[in-house]
Amino acid sequence: MKLDESHDVTFRDTLSTIDDKGKRNWVFAKKPKGKIYNYRKLFAYSLLAFLFIVPFIKLNGEPFLLFNVIERKFIIFGVIFWPQDSFLFYLMMLSFILFIVLFTVVYGRLFCGWACPQTVFLEFVFRPVEWLIDGNPAKQKKLKAQVWNLEKIFKRLLKHILFWVLSFLIVSALLSFILGAENVINFLKHPFPEHKSGFIALIIFTSAFYFIYSWFREQVCSIMCPYGRLQSVLIDPNTIVVSYDYLRGEPRGTAKKGDTEAAEKLGDCIDCKQCVHVCPTNIDIRNGTQLECVNCTACIDACNATMTRIGKPKGLIRFASENGIKTGKDFKLTPRNIAYTVVLTGIVIFFLTMLLTRPAVEANIIRDRNILPQIQIDTIVNVYNVKILNKTHKDLNLIIKPQNFKGNLKFFGDNLNIKSGKKTEPKMIIYIPKSELKNKNSILKFGIYSDGKLIEKVESNFVGPDINN
Ligand code: SF4
Ligand code: SF4
User: Fold this and answer.
1) Rounded distance, CA 358 to CA 266, Å?
2) Cβ distance 346 to 67 under 8 Å?
């Protein structure tokens, strides 16, 4: 769609991976090289190591991370979240969403290019296998166009078998975060008829991953991903994104050798298109920020290599905001960035405080309203329903003691020895001498002790006779 005849500025109104006839433009991305790519590789392989190692790490006998949605059991950093802790869990989810939003507002889609599992798997697992088997983009194009001979059949078979095996490994690792590593290994060791439904689910997920990485690929980021779709409302001219410095680069082109006059009129971009060849989403960053750009930074490395080769300063493509490029000023923290960072830090601190100060037990002591208070000579008797949940990894032997009153407690029904993750619900009778009561209604404070240590405090009310009568 041509918008401005005088400047010959044209904009696409289709995806970069779809041609005029609506057919897929297959991306044959060149392997990136450079300093930033090396950092990215290191980061991506650390994330992959995390994926495959963490399911085997235990803390206090529990998995380091577990998101068992089926049994509603969540373990984060070895801390078990019970359904009663849903508040903390929602807070954590909220912090995570806020983090992503605030991070995006300031740093754009950096998460997509560096930490998103889709990009990490595609660019650091599947594409390297493809480069290894099919070769560089020129060889890949040739192989695609050539007839089905022995070489093509062998390469295609090898690549797709490897893709399927890798998908299977990734799905198994991801499943370990839901079911636990031991369960997944057990499940894989046992014969198919014993785990029919689980095995079918594994095959379905593996096939979905295989489909994504062998065919759908960057379309996930461009079409499907809701986070990608949110970008247009989250970023603004102050957001840091991968940007082309058009003031420095334009007009692009190369002058004939010795034509210094023409060379002086040109910008630094020599139109070598290296930035386009490495782009995994098939875009030309020189056209500005685009929907498909995942901020992978491959084009920065490619352009820096070109600039070094022609003896110009690096950074023609760099991390900068639209306003930064326009004004030529480097990135500076704006009051908005500072405010967002403060809010985010506050949420994270609040969450960590709640997590670290979370009591070992969840306890409720509620007076049984179906049983009226009784007067036994000069003692008042109230009956209570006690409910205590053991949130720790060990079995607890608890004692409940009065904190602000003198009286006797008696228990019947369940006892106060609670297994890890289990609850106890005994009845409790409290005897308080009349002389100890100053009001008809008193607030009683209880201490819950384990191994002689106070681990939780609970309050309840006590109803006595009307003192004024
Ligand atoms: S334009 Fe650059 S940063 Fe954006 S996806 Fe392409 S290579 Fe990555
Ligand atoms: S790599 Fe740099 S010099 Fe080459 S076309 Fe891209 S922006 Fe221009």
Assistant:
1) 64
2) no
CA 152 – ligand 1 centroid, Å: 30
Give me ligand 2 centre to Cα 76, in Å: 45
Residue 4, pLDDT above cutoff 70? no
Residue nearest (by alpha carbon) to ligand 1 atom 1:
285
Which H or E element spans position 21?
none
pLDDT digits (tens, 9 = 90+) for 301-352: 999 999 999 999 999 999 999 999 998 877 777 787 788 778 878 878 888 8
Give the three-state DSSP class for 401. Answer: strand
Q: How far is CA 264 from CA 249, 250, 254, 271, 339, in A?
A: 12, 12, 10, 16, 44
Residue 9 pLDDT more than 60?
no
Q: What's the token pair of residue 304?
A: 């820096």
What is the 3-state secondary structure of 321-384? CHHHHHHCCCCCCCHHHHHHHHHHHHHHHHHHHHHHCCCCEEEEEEECCCCCCEEECCEEEEEE
Ligand 2 atom at minimal distance to the Cα of residue 286: 7
Cβ neighbours of residue 16 closer than 8 Å, sequence gap 6 or more: 25, 222, 281, 282, 283, 290, 292
Ligand 1 centroid vs 289 CA: distance in angstroms?
9
CB < 8 Å & 24+ apart, contacts of 300-303:
300/34, 300/36, 300/242, 301/32, 301/33, 301/34, 301/35, 301/36, 301/37, 302/30, 302/32, 302/33, 302/34, 302/274, 302/275, 302/277, 302/278, 303/274, 303/275
Q: What is the pLDDT of residue 351?
A: 80
Q: Is the Cβ atom of 279 under 6 angstroms away from ligand 1?
A: yes
For residue 276, report the distance from its CA to the centre of ligand 2, in Å. Answer: 8
Residue 298 near ligand 2, beta carbon < 6 Å: no
pTM above 0.90, yes or no: no
Task: Judge if the beta carbon of residue 281 lies within 6 A of ligand 1.
Answer: yes
Q: Whose CA is nearest to atom 7 of ligand 2?
A: 269
Closest ligand 1 atom to residue 285 Cα is 1
Q: Could you give the domains of the chain?
A: 23-87+108-226 (no CATH), 361-463 (2.60.40.10)
Residue with tokens 């380091």: 64
| Nearest in space to 380 (alpha carbons), one of 435, 421, 328, 419 | 435
pLDDT (mean) for 148-158: 96
Say how far apart CA 89 and CA 87 lie, in whole Å. Answer: 5
Q: Look up residue 229 and give its two tokens.
A: 């779709």
Mind listing the pLDDT tens digit for each residue in 380-422?
Answer: 999 999 999 998 878 999 999 999 999 999 999 889 999 988 8
| Residue owning the nearest CA to atom 3 of ligand 1 | 295
- 272 Cβ closer than 6 Å to some ligand 2 atom: yes
